[in-house]
Amino acid sequence: MITPISPHPAAIIRTQKARIMVIADLHIGWEMALSERGIHIPTQTPRLLGRLTNLISTYKPEKLIVLGDVKHTVATAEIGEWHDVPEFFAELKKQIKEIWVIRGNHDGNLEPLLPENIKILPGTGTNIGEVGLFHGHQWPSPTLLQSKTLLMGHVHPVVAFRDPAGFRTTKQVWVKVACNGAQLAKILLQKHKTKIEKTLKETLRKHYKVKPRTVQLFIIPPFNDFLGGKPLNRIKPNGKSKSEKIVGPVLRSEAVDIENAETYLLDGTFLGTLNQLRMLG
Description:
This protein is an alpha/beta fold. Helix content is 23%, strand content 22%. The chain has one domain. It has helices spanning 30-35, 45-59, 79-93, 181-191, 200-208, 249-252, 274-277; strands spanning 2-4, 11-14, 19-23, 63-66, 98-102, 119-121, 126-128, 131-134, 149-152, 158-162, 168-178, 216-219, 262-265, 270-273. Helix 2 (45-59) runs parallel beside helix 3 (79-93).
């Protein structure tokens, strides 16, 4: 159901009715955060737009879904974002009519920046066919459990490699994680203060009209490849301090086997599991 567009941080979801392109973490306006630290670079928004419009022209999806963090400022919007975000999406609308945005933790005050007819969904996500989509900074809705596969952004996944001379490089990766759907269902019901009645399945059917089917979760790399990230092979999910923990409540839960998560370069090369890659970080 999910086909990564190699070698790009984007994917295609095919349903019986449509071909949908998915990207995450544009962080339009991130250059302004660097400018405040004395690092001045020109806006890279035209470059992001060019890459994305080329992909849309090539794969011709009927719909585009952005998995959160359209802009970089968290709660409000900077002056540059008031210019770049509307212009970015106005150009996209010339190529693709239907655009959905799943709200991320950087998307406060996003509505005034977007052109009309762009649908904004909550960060708890939505289902598209067999895939449940959410940003990742908060728990997904229990309704996503009806999908076999979950897809999230937010993490900016990279792995680190250290050569014999001690130099370290990082590479963007896709991450595939086994997910215990029953365990995740119990956690989500607890978070939503829904008491389990008789059985887990009956409770989900009664309150959310879903049957739990989730078995795996994918993490998509950010479309903005300037962002970097904390190398996952140097972060332990149960680190002693908050800064050492992997980001995202689902990934820190017992519902996913993050230590044995599979990692893939953007060209599809399988690198190994996170546990195997720790010695390289």
